[in-house]
Amino acid sequence: MGISILGLGSYVPEQKLTNNDFTRFVDTNDEWIRTRTGIIERRMAGWEPTWYMGTQAALKAVEQAGISPEDIGLVISCTATSDFHTPSMASVIQHKTGAVNAAAFDINAACSGFVYALDIAERFLRTDDSLKYVLVAANESLSRFLDFEDRSSCILFGDGAAAAVVERSDKLYASHLASDGSGAGYLCARALKAAPEVKQDSDFVDEFPDMPLHKLYQNGKEVYKFATHALPKSFELAAAKCGITKDEIDWFIPHQANIRIIETAAKKLGAPMEKFIVTLDHYGNTSSVSIPLTLNEAAADGRIVRGQKLALIGFGAGLTYGGIILEF
Fold first, then answer.
1. How far apart are alpha carbons 90 and 82 in whole angstroms?
2. What are the catalytic residues?
């Protein structure tokens, strides 16, 4: 039992921020950013709410799938940057796409979100015969959580959305999801007016660093160490469940965080970089959106075709990680 991806869609904001734009407010330059991250430009949400971007991507995915939105039985939105504490982005997207018969909920697995959500979709489809289609929408407005005085983190992230419509099938499918909560403080942002002030002599200081309220904090060194271990491990644990080797994979679609992380992961796997699809140069790190955004772009331009075997491998805050192997 597996899933078939019937339709894909994406949306990126109108506003574009190049590396040179950052020189106006932080001490950096284009060469410094390119050589350390591989990023050249990224999109920034201006007037677009998170739910709006998710809706636009979802509408395109539904249209490509060629189905009636009334036949969608479940909408899953993955986001770490919801517009509201409640309602969920999934409920808004459900309404805006006309999926009137669907249940809806959000998940937050940060940059691993799409892998988590797609695996949840597969499990729902496998256990509920009445469910025909699941809509998975990843949508992020990371720019609203960035500390634009921290040049090591603000240069990395971008905004956007991507979505997929899936149904059950007998195609190849295997997955593995995991988390290491001991690293939760390495990549985090406090909820606006939700988290209490932490006294400096409390036990919580060791777990979560002192950071600007509502701004993203990242310990780049620790995240790099985790990511370069988690990406190959995500593939290996999923591959072991279905007996697939790296040589049988047509394309690896990793989370798009940093080109050095992807290159190191490829080296550890013993797989050529030519098999890794990279889009971070023009999107930056879009968190849960990065894998489906890359998948959509590569399918649209003809690199990914039906019948190919794909490995979707991600990692993110939590610290979460996960891998899915499937036939497109």
1. 10
2. 111, 255, 285
